[in-house]
Specification:
Layout (H helix, E strand, L loop, with lengths): L2 H11 L7 E4 L4 E4 L2 H14 L2 E13 L8 E13 L6 E12 L4 H17 L20 H9 L4 H14 L4 H27 L1
Antiparallel strand pairs: 1-2, 3-4, 4-5
Helix pairs in contact: 2-3, 4-5, 4-6, 5-6
């Protein structure tokens, strides 16, 4: 079988993974599926159908804690290669981005686990019952999408700082919205700095 047929064979075996962990958001909890549980469920089928998966780090960055926070933010981009064990040149590649917060040295491992979990879930189309798209919407009456759009359109660092400060204050004590704003700010900051670096190199 080629890699597409092998992936389809795994899809026929593993159709659903039950959420196994309770996650505290500060405003309540939700159920989620962990990397280890996904691995435990999918690994036997991948072995049976001859699929090897390995990650390649494309780029990564560690951001210092924002004012008032204790944890640093790490973000990375990985390519996950799903390879036909009988013909290694026959493969599928999925590129995933991930980030993680930690006050020690665990953030890179957390980000890799997160990215691998979702690469597997999405490739094999495994249902989990999670509603990833709606989590940021749990923001009360705070218009999160408007603030995220403003942050993402900031043309320079100084403007970004001003918009972020205003949005973060407006979010009040809404931890879900605050985390989303921090993520958007850090992502936009990295893009602006990368753009400046590219311009200076020309």
């Amino acid at each position: 079988m080629n890699i597409f047929q092998r992936v389809n064979a795994v899809r026929k075996v593993v159709k659903y993974v039950q959420k196994d962990k309770s996650v505290d958001t500060g405003r309540g909890t939700y159920r989620a599926v962990t990397h280890d549980f996904v691995t435990a469920m999918v690994r036997p089928a991948m072995i049976e159908h001859g699929i090897i998966c390995y990650p390649v780090l494309i780029e990564s960055a560690m951001f210092p804690p924002v004012e008032g926070a204790k944890q640093s933010r790490y973000e990375a981009t990985y390519d996950f290669h799903f390879v036909n064990e009988e013909e290694p040149t026959d493969r599928l590649t999925i590129r995933m981005q991930a980030h993680a917060m930690d006050n020690a040295d665990k953030a890179p491992g957390k980000a890799l686990s997160y990215a691998k979990k979702y690469a597997v879930l999405k490739l094999f189309e495994i249902e989990t019952g999670e509603d990833d798209e709606s989590r940021v919407q749990d923001s009360g009456d705070f218009p999160i999408e408007d603030h995220l759009a403003a942050i993402e359109s900031a043309p320079d660092i100084e403007t970004l700082k001003t918009i972020f400060a205003s949005s973060y204050t407006a979010a009040g004590k809404n931890p879900v919205a605050q985390k989303a704003l921090i993520l958007a700010k850090d992502t936009r900051k990295a893009a602006i700095l990368k753009g400046e670096s590219n311009d200076s190199a020309k």
